[in-house]
Specification:
This protein is an alpha/beta fold. The protein is built from 14 helices and 12 strands. The chain has helices at 31-39, 58-68, 83-93, 110-123, 185-190, 203-206, 238-243, 245-261, 263-266, 270-294, 297-313, 315-322, 325-330, 334-352; strands at 3-6, 12-15, 18-24, 45-52, 73-78, 98-101, 107-108, 132-141, 149-150, 161-162, 181-184, 217-229.
Length: 355
């Protein structure tokens, strides 16, 4: 099945099925494993390597790929703007019907990859337009033989098109991350998604802001994306996250802003509202526990300010989060209370399988 589009000069050319954006910043040591795995999609895919101002050999490696695979790979060199900036550039330049971000230290599994592409092909051109495809991802954690799989088979219907009305209950540790989602490219543009530059943790916004525009979904129960965890400088490392806590708070507040400013639209769809509220609950809990773990008075003040910010923005949403299980756990008083908060969070993390 071939997709066609008409260019400005009136020439009909084949349209790519799926565009991948691969944000790269000093990724020379590991990016080839990522790109090589994506190349197995052949001519159905477009791979956009975004060199985000790298100072190592990333640019040269990317340019070599573009020379070797000119019909599949395009390279964009830009000044450093951070992960969000690279994703924005990817969305702006994507020519595929669908769009996915793959970080340069991650990769995809070939067998599941084929199933993803076959599914997208089969759903393209049907009467119902697919907005979002969800698949599983696997934590590839250094030093662990058993790899945790994030799957959604108890929350989402399998192998069928569905809407928010068909979505079941997500448990607290189960939510859709950048690794598990493929969006319709035009939807990302129509919803006005623009991730902030020079900011980490913007992937939370990427999987949050488009949701009110998503009507039709499909869940494929395959372990497609391999999410590598193990580098000491990785953004999800706890010490690194505490050092960048202001960026975590920034993203958290932007999510609060979006939730409250689009309340009328979001609350129209009950199950979507419940899911987005739960996801905001998780992100606010992560912000809170990191601020507590840092142990500084400055960061404890920032925690109070974050909750006050939510309260001022939307008192009802604040009550929902503040007096829920996690909110209560994060707001115990005194030194002993803070110790209980951290230990309680660890228990919840083990019970609900938080990341």
């Amino acid at each position: 099945m071939q997709l066609k589009k008409i260019c400005d000069i009136g020439v009909v050319k084949e349209m790519k099925l799926l565009s991948f954006a691969v944000p790269c910043y000093n990724s020379a040591a590991y990016m080839e494993k990522c790109v090589d795995s994506l190349l197995k999609g052949g001519e159905d895919v477009e791979i956009i390597i975004v060199d985000d101002g790298s100072v190592d050999e990333t640019a040269a490696i990317a340019d070599k790929y573009a020379l070797d695979y000119p019909s599949v790979i395009k390279v964009i060199h830009k000044e450093n703007g951070g992960h969000g900036s690279a994703v924005n550039i990817g969305i702006e330049n994507a020519e595929g019907l669908y769009f996915k971000v793959v970080d340069s230290d991650d990769w995809v599994k070939e067998e599941a990859y084929k199933q993803i592409l076959d599914t997208l092909k089969n759903l393209t051109g049907t009467e119902t337009v697919l907005d979002m495809l969800v698949s599983n991802f696997v934590y590839e954690k250094t030093g662990e033989n058993r790899h945790k799989v994030m799957r959604y088979k108890h929350a989402l219907p399998i192998d069928k098109m569905f809407t928010w009305e068909d979505v079941k209950h997500f448990h607290k540790g189960q939510y859709i991350l950048m690794h598990s989602v493929i969006f319709r490219t035009k939807l990302l543009r129509e919803c006005g998604l623009k991730l902030p530059e020079h900011t980490f943790y913007v992937d939370n916004l990427y999987v949050f802001e488009p949701l009110p525009y998503v009507r039709n979904m499909y869940y494929l129960d395959v372990n497609f994306y391999r999410y590598y965890i193990g580098r000491a400088d990785q953004s999800v490392n706890e010490e690194v996250m505490i050092g960048r806590i202001d960026q975590q708070i920034k993203v958290n507040k932007l999510m609060i802003d979006y939730m409250t400013e689009n309340k009328n639209r979001i609350t129209l769809v009950k199950k979507m509202y419940q899911y987005m509220t739960s996801y905001l609950d998780i992100v606010t809990t992560v912000s809170s526990v990191l601020l507590i773990c840092s142990g500084t008075e400055e960061n404890l003040t920032k925690k109070k300010e974050l909750w006050s910010y939510l309260k001022k923005k939307d008192w009802m949403l604040y009550r929902k989060l503040r007096y829920g299980l996690l909110g209560n756990c994060m707001n115990l008083h005194g030194r002993v209370g803070r110790w209980v908060s951290v230990e309680g969070y660890k228990i919840c993390r083990r019970f609900f399988h938080f990341n």
